[in-house]
Amino acid sequence: MKVSDPCPFPKEFPSQLMKDSNFFMQHAYNQSINAWNADEVPVGAVMVHNEEIIASAHNQTRTQKDPSAHAEMIAISQAARHIGDWRLNECKLYVTKEPCPMCAGATIISRIKEIHFALVDPKMGGLGGATSLHELPQSNHKPNVYAGTMEKECKTLFQAFFQLKRKSPS
After folding, report:
1. Which position among 40, 51, 72, 135 bears the catalytic label?
2. 72 is catalytic
3. What is the pTM of this model?
């Protein structure tokens, strides 16, 4: 698969009338499509404060040539700039795949109130999949973690991306 292979999945058009977990995850899903179209692993994230999206991002590790340019890390940085503080106590993060240990650590350090993710990552997930950083007994912050929002849609997109990558001679 090359950069010119656009994502075959359509973007979502969430209704402003119902701002629930699905609404915000649909926005994260749209970011994952942006990632696909940039030839990045299709992970998208949005940060919510007072029921408004204040940050949105997708993976950019390849385009930025930066191993820390994960969707979650970028959204956390954007949100901190928006709020004007590194403490994001009243924020909620929505992400299409369980955060890795680096990103999970950042969600804890930034004191994010809630983290919602679609797909559990049993190999590298940091919030229950492979390890549970949010449950460390000595940690002073323990965010509420919710898994499975739009799981089917995100899993289908993620699997299709990697099936095409495996078929592509690169």
Report:
1. 72
2. yes
3. 0.94
